[in-house]
Design brief:
Helix content: 25-40%
Radius of gyration: 15 Å
Structural class: mainly alpha
Shape: flat
Number of strands: 0
Strand content: under 5%
Number of helices: 2
Largest sheet: none
Number of domains: 1
């Protein structure tokens, strides 16, 4: 048995939500050396769609 279930159109996508204290902190994390190293290591191994948005209070 798989660890996921696909319904409707059969699109297998994954969404990950990470909360930061501010948009500026999230942008800084994106530009951090560690994250940039990870992106280089992954190369074209995945299609990424990264969005940084301000939360609604």
């Amino acid at each position: 048995m798989t660890a996921y279930w696909i319904n409707e159109s059969g699109v297998t996508e994954r969404t990950t939500l990470i909360e930061f204290h501010s948009v500026e902190d999230a942008v800084a994390a994106y530009h951090s050396p560690g994250y940039q190293d990870a992106l280089r290591a992954l190369g074209d191994g995945a299609v990424r769609d990264l969005r940084i948005i301000e939360a609604v209070s």
